[in-house]
């Protein structure tokens, strides 16, 4: 599983919080929308 992460996205933020709380090792891929 990989998290495609846009820092301004509230949904990605929820997933990042969940990953941190569960102490999971999920790779993230930043998305550049510029």
Automatic annotation (TrEMBL):
Residues 1-34 form the GST N-terminal domain. InterPro entries: Glutathione_S-Trfase_N (IPR004045), Thioredoxin-like_sf (IPR036249). Pfam families: GST_N_3 (PF13417). Gene3D superfamilies: Glutaredoxin. This is GST N-terminal domain-containing protein. It comes from marine metagenome.
């Amino acid at each position: 599983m990989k998290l495609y992460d846009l820092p301004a996205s509230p949904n990605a933020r929820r997933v990042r919080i969940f990953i941190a709380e569960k102490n999971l090792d999920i790779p993230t891929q930043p998305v550049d929308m510029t």
